[in-house]
Amino acid sequence: MTVQRRRQLIALSHRYNVPILEDDFVGDLRYEGRAQPALKSFDPGGRVLYVTTFSRMLMPGLLVGFVAAEGPFFDSLVRYKRVNDLTSSNLHQRALEAYVTVGRYQSHLRRTSAIYRKRRDALLHAVDRYLPAAVQLKPHQGGLFAWMRLHSSNCIKFLPF
């Protein structure tokens, strides 16, 4: 979403008192361009809960992520964490902190982005070459998914690559 649409969404959230869960599990995966700011960065009232994980981009079994929350949700999340998750691995969290701190995570993201950029480009080429002209797939600047528009049916499909 553009910055303007992000601001509009936050305004609607405040107007109707509706919370937003921003799941940014592949926000670090960029092929070109700059990442849009998180919805959370536009949220003065604490209605956006920002969650992300290192599991998707680093190691699926790691199961370490984080939540950025404030306002009415923070206390509830802390209580829930204490009651339901007493076994978060300190070893995993400390190893991840060391990995991120020395810059290894950024190096990993650069390598991973190059691999997924090639996959994205292959998808774009295949759609252009093998599907009818009515099918449109705009290049996306990051993430693991692409939106395809099928004009004949006015339908949008969600494609992993």
Q: How are strands sequenced across the largest beta sheet? A: 1-2-3
Rg value? 19 Å
What's the pLDDT, averaged over the residues? Answer: 87
* Helix content bin: 25-40%
Major sheet characteristics: 3 strands, mixed
Distance between the termini: 20 Å
Q: Give helix and strand order, one letter per element, not per position.
A: HEEEHHHEEE
- Detail the poorly predicted runs: none
Name the overall outline. globular
DSSP E strands, number:
6
Tell me what portion of residues adopts beta-strand conformation.
15-25%
What layout of secondary structure does this protein have?
Blueprint: H1 3-16, E1 20-23, E2 48-53, E3 65-68, H2 74-84, H3 90-101, H4 104-130, E4 135-137, E5 145-150, E6 155-160
Parallel strand pairs: 1-2
Antiparallel strand pairs: 2-3, 4-5, 5-6
Descriptive terms for the model:
161 residues; alpha+beta; 3-stranded mixed beta sheet; 3-stranded antiparallel beta sheet; 6 strands; globular
Architecture overview:
- This protein has a 3-stranded mixed sheet with strand order 1-2-3, with no helix packed on it. Strands 4-5-6 form a 3-stranded antiparallel sheet, with helices on one face.
- It is an alpha+beta fold and 161 residues long.
- A hairpin with a 4-residue loop joins strand 5 and strand 6.
- The chain is built from 4 helices and 6 strands.
